[in-house]
Amino acid sequence: MDRQVTKDRLPRMNWIARISLALAALAIAAPTAAFAGGEREVSRSTTFGGSCPKCELSGRRLSGAHFVAADFREAAMVGSDLRSAQFIASTFISANLSKADLTSAEIVGSNFSGANLSHARLRSAEAHAVVFTGADLSRADLTSIEANAANFSKALLGGAILRSSELTAANFTKADARGADFTSSELNHAQLSGGRFGKASFRSAELNGTVFGDGDFDGADFSSADLQGAIIIGADLSRARGLSQDQLDEACADSRTKAPPGLSVRACHHIPLPRVVVSIPSPPAPPPAPRPPRYLIQVDPTP
Q1: How far apart are CA 268 and CA 16, in angstroms?
Q2: Strand 231-233 and strand 252-253: pairing?
Q3: Within 10 Å of residue 234's Cβ, how many Cβ atoms?
């Protein structure tokens, strides 16, 4: 009877063995297929921290990377792929990110003062309260960027594209934004004092409570812009385009302001100038030290 049972189980055992071998082969082949031809990329998470000044990372594929409390001042990241990357409380002072792709990047409490971001792509990026003081953003694409309370003072923005962007309370004091495109952007309560905005486009932009102090707006286009509550102090708008009397009636100015020919401005009376304060949060605390490793000393055999 034992022999009969053994004979009946043999086909079943052979079938199980064949299935097991097939599954094992698939498990081995799956990783190989993921790399075959370089068409499919294995998901990964790259995190950078600590200090790495003057690091050379140009042309690297760093999409989705995390920079947490990192110091990359004067680092070279020319043309690097930084799409959807996160920059948290990190320093990139004087770093070279020209032609880098930071599309949909998340930048929080980071410092890019004096950085080279010319011809970079920051489309749909989030950069609230980020410092770009003195940075070179000429010809950069910042379409639909969210950069409320960001500091662009003394930045170079010549020919930059900032269409449909959120720039509420942003600081553009003494920025050079000649030829920049702010079409349909929100610049409410922004600071444009002392800036150079010749031939810039503010078409259909929201400029509620925005301060235009001693700025250059030669040839700037304000067609359909909303200037309600705007404060124009010492600005020369005589050669600005697209302005109407209805727009200027919503704003106020001082005696030094020059309106376009045939238009006039009304005087401001005791209107306090908005103050833009940009603060950088403290770097996050370092993670706790790992626990000591556990070793298996002896295994008792099963009786």
Answers
A1: 88
A2: parallel
A3: 16
pLDDT digits (tens, 9 = 90+) for 35-44: 334 443 434 5
Q: Say what the pTM is.
A: 0.75
Q: Is there a domain that residue 258 lies in?
A: yes
What tens digit of pLDDT does each residue of 58-89 get?
999 999 999 999 999 999 999 999 999 999 99
Question: Is residue 280 within 8 Å of 109, Cβ to Cβ?
Answer: yes
Same domain, 136 and 183: yes
Indicate if 176 and 66 belong to the same structural domain.
Answer: no
Phi, psi of 51 (to 5 degrees): -115, 130
Q: What residues contact 193, with CB distance under 8 A and at least 6 apart?
A: 173, 174, 211, 212, 213, 214, 215, 233
Give Cα separations from 38 to 34, 66, 161 (angstroms).
8, 24, 34
Chain center to CA of 157: 15
The order of strands in the sheet holding 47-51 is: 47-51, 66-71, 86-88, 106-108
Helix, strand, coil in percent for the chain, rounding step 5: 15, 20, 65
Same domain, yes or no, for 100 and 205? no
Strands ordered across the beta sheet of 231-233: 211-213, 231-233, 252-253
Residue 33, domain extent: 2-38
CATH number of 62's domain: 2.160.20.80
